[in-house]
Amino acid sequence: MEKKTSVRVAAAQIAPDLTSREKTLARVLETIREAAAKGAELIVFPETFVPWYPYFSFVLPPVLSGKEHVRLYEEAVIVPSAATDAVSAAAREHGIVVVLGVNERDHGSLYNAQLLFDADGTLILKRRKITPTFHERMIWGQGDASGLKVVDSAVGRLGALACWEHYNPLARYALMAQHEDIHIAQFPGSMVGPIFADQMEVTIRHHALESGCFVVNATGWLTDEQITSITPDAGLQKALRGGCMTAIVSPEGKHVVPPLTEGEGLLIADLDMSLIVKRKRMMDSVGHYARPELLHLVMDGRATAPMVATSQPSFTSAEARTLSDGEYDTSSDRDSDQRIAVLRSPAR
């Protein structure tokens, strides 16, 4: 696929519907149409936007959060499902790459998942946040490194991380080493206050500089009415404001357009892809500026599973036969011992 010289991208800072997956999904589909009408070839939505980020877990004690946690299960997204089919169809209809954060339900567990749909509607990446942060650990399970990969898309090579995964330098380096053109960042937004937005900005601008790629970051927004519905406590409501930094950053660490830190909106920007080479000519962290003979990353990229079915060698009757005096054939014992050692070795 020939590399594009310019890509128009969009980052959405909008509010979910805290009552319904379908209503939030309707907002997603409406925003995809809006971005495509403005010529966007890529759109990024906030972290776990469908059905909504679990804001309740940040302000409610665990003993009081059960009802909301169960409701999140009921509204969560199964992959694949009618919800993902709808996003896929919208991407295909409008010829736009869509990156959507969802609460993924896999039987009895929830995961913070990032879904990347190519412009033809194909789901080219589903990855799960490898380590949920603080309060999130009571909501989501852990992902594995099988999702730490960069994928080819209609707009270039894309990699993605969620929220404080950007504070894991090895996770970032794993994507850098696979040569991202555009890095997708997603944060919840409407949390912690202005310091969260400040920290977020430093983080995404640094990654753009270090990776020599563009970063498109989307954060969510909560209305005052929604904040009140989460908690009536005025003190706790302060923890659900601020922390928005929807932004598009160049490989030189500069904002391509002014960031969005308040209210709902859609950032649109044209990316000059030649800036990637301009930056990497000077400093390529995984190329001429690397010293892999001194420092390099080893990543276990296998998908994990609670059970792995495998076929093991079985013993034949000849190996188990006994001699007339009641003693075992020692040659067969040696073979059996070797096979038992294989059985007892740790699974790979």
Describe the structure.
With 348 residues, the protein is an alpha/beta fold. It has ten helices and eleven strands. The strands form two sheets. It has a six-stranded mixed beta sheet. The chain starts with 5 loop residues before the first strand and ends with a helix. About 2% of the residues have low confidence.
Secondary structure blueprint with pairings:
Blueprint lengths: L5 E8 L7 H17 L4 E3 L11 H4 L6 H10 L6 H13 L2 E10 L2 E9 L5 E6 L22 E3 L2 E7 L6 H8 L5 E6 L6 H18 L2 E6 L4 H7 L3 H4 L9 E3 L15 E8 L1 H9 L47 H15 L4
Parallel strand pairs: 1-2, 2-3, 7-8, 8-9
Antiparallel strand pairs: 1-11, 3-4, 4-5, 6-7, 9-10
Helix pairs in contact: 1-4
Family: Belongs to the carbon-nitrogen hydrolase superfamily. Nitrilase family.
InterPro entries: C-N_Hydrolase (IPR003010), C-N_Hydrolase_sf (IPR036526), Nitrilase (IPR023919), Nitrilase/CN_hydratase_CS (IPR000132), Nitrilases_CHs (IPR044149)
Organism: Rhizobium sullae (Rhizobium hedysari)
